[in-house]
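Table 4 source record.
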Amino acid sequence: MSSIPDRPLIGDTGNVGDSGNRMKKDPFTIDLSFIDVETTGLTSYDHDATGHVRQYNDVIEVAVVRARQSDLTIVSEWSAKIKPRRMVNAQAKALEVNGYTAERWAEAVPLEVAMRKFYDLTVDTVIVAHNIAFDSDFIVAALKEAGVIDQTAATPWYNALCTMSSAQILLRGLTPRLRGVLVAETLGITPEPEVHGALNGARQCYQNYRRMRQIVDDPIIRARTEELVRRFRENPV
């Protein structure tokens, strides 16, 4: 793997953490946690007949690829299949995509075990996902259901970054749509298979991010970016 300069990805980030000591850290040196989830459907929450919020679909697999932000060296990989709790609400299309069968999930771990490990691996890092809104919605719901964080607690990571949003900026006009597999193909990366697992997805997210960082850090593009930033500062709007 080639060395990549210590610069952040130019793209869209969303701060979903708290504003305490965590936010005093250098945002460009914190480890990145590339994540992916497989679920039993598209909706983490629903409302019951009385209007109360209830959890609806489950996280049944989760993965983390953690890397140093400076050079994107991978420091750890982890994934776990999770015992589903509400299969009655499962959607056939979701199960088709993640290849769920009772046999494949025979050794799945309880939600509490998986989410405690996820928390330990990602706390105070920058989490990165392709469509962060979807993944973080399910992850936060699972962390709360497992009792790893309180119902009113702030999310435990430093910040969050979405490679879909970054691709919308960097690859505008170059990729037909923003699905992860299409972004991968545009960037010359072998896409994950149609029936895939969370670790495949986390690895693809990492590769997509890595290629977009290489675009941003190309010497010609970097020099042009620095020149434009200088002009913007001299001519504020």
